[in-house]
Amino acid sequence: MSNYENNYSENSFWEKLKKHAIEAGKKVVYSALLAFYAIENPNVPLKDKMKIYGALGYLILPFDLVPDFIPVVGYGDDLAALLFVLGTIANHLDNDVKQKAVNKMKEWFGELDRGDQEIIEIDAKIVDVEKGMDGMASTKQLTED
Fold it and tell me: DUF1232 domain location, by residue (predicted)?
């Protein structure tokens, strides 16, 4: 991700999301908003913020591994990058970060019900990535002992 953080700017982020929210879909938008609002969290270490900037910079670029204009799959790589980063910083995605993301989603997509399946799926995937990262760290620790 480190090659992409230079492509990030707050203005470009908001411009991209506002312009492409519907075609990108709720999963990508919610993930991007979680990442954006996590940057504002003073408890997120700088090294983790750099990861977030990289993932958001990747999202902003229209021509990446899978160009965004390709129907159905265009934002899949962006979502994967966002989920990976969100999984690594999951402990910093507190209720304040999540509420800000949901509030912005309501502005763009209208009222969301408490059981919005796409948001629930993203939250679950973040936990899965976090568990996978913890598992990798545990395995690494065992092999080092």
Answer: 49-84
